[in-house]
Amino acid sequence: MTVNTHKGFAALNRRFILPELREAVRTVGADLVFLQEVLGTHSRHASRITDWPEAPHYEFLADSIWPQFAYGRNAVYPRGHHGNALLSKFPIVHHRNHDVSIEGPERRGLLHCALELPGRDLQVHAICVHLGLAEGHRRKQLELLCKIVEAEVPTESPLIVAGDFNDWRGRAHKVLDERIGLREVFLHAYGRAARTFPAHMPLLPLDRIYVRNAAIFAPLALPRRPWSHLSDHAPLVAEIQL
């Protein structure tokens, strides 16, 4: 599952909905949850919002369901920081956050985790993605993603790359397929990527789940409610058999 948490707030930042989001994510029960725009800390919100959790948001979301989690801090500001995170039901044996920020104020990262699954000799690699808003930035960040995969992921290892690509033009599909053999699950099943933004009436296909070395991969449908008011992005879910 991949979901942009919008820092725990509903669209337009009108309401803090992280507890509701946690319950919705729990209902799905995915083995792996890729999170973008997840807060590590925010001192101002913590002092003003009554149900603000003491733990970082990724720990609050993981709770007792996902015993393993990793966080990659991307954006740091005077009152706190946010980034990408991965929640996992399987051991995370190591993780590394790659800074892929280009020029300007946008801070972006790729969180790469290696997982151990029972009965598997090969490690499973998972990369949580949040690319930039500018197409020129995304083009350079896709190149960096390809180089990271080529350098750090064995060609025979299962690989899942998911997150918010901000790629409404669909330029990432060809690059990732030709360079590193990744296939997008919704594109493979339906001939086009899923529309995920804005969540209340999705028009743009910004979020993706790509896989490599998977025997079976298929998208799963989620109801519009409650997801349409839990973030500005609709989540994506897929079943992947390795």
Task: Describe the structure concisely for a colleague.
The protein has helices at 18-28, 43-48, 57-62, 135-152, 172-180, 185-190, 224-227, and strands spanning 2-4, 32-42, 68-77, 80-88, 92-99, 109-115, 124-130, 159-164, 183-184, 207-212, 216-220, 237-241.
Describe the 3D structure.
There is one protein chain. The chain has 7 helices and 12 strands. It is α+β, with helices and mostly antiparallel strands. It has one domain (2-241): Deoxyribonuclease I, Chain A, CATH 3.60.10.10. Helix 4 (135-152) packs parallel to helix 5. It is globular and about 50 Å long. Keywords: Endonuclease, Hydrolase, Nuclease. It holds the Pfam family Exo_endo_phos. Residues 21-233 form the Endonuclease/exonuclease/phosphatase domain.
Largest sheet: 6 strands, mixed
Tell me, what is the CATH class? Alpha Beta
Q: Tell how many strands the DSSP assignment holds.
A: 12
**Overall average residue pLDDT:** 94
CATH topology: Deoxyribonuclease I, Chain A
- Secondary structure: helix percent: 10-25%
Number of contiguous helices: 7
Rg over CA atoms: 17 Å
CATH architecture: 4-Layer Sandwich
User: What's the CATH H-level superfamily name?
Assistant: Endonuclease/exonuclease/phosphatase
What low-confidence regions span 5 or more consecutive residues with pLDDT below 50? none
Number of domains: 1
**Secondary-structure-derived class:** alpha+beta
In the sheet with the most strands, the strands line up as: 5-6-7-8-10-9
Based on CA inertia axes, which overall geometry fits? globular
Secondary-structure element order, as H and E?
EHEHHEEEEEHEHEHEEHE
Strand content: 25-35%
What is the CA-CA span between the terminal residues? 16 Å
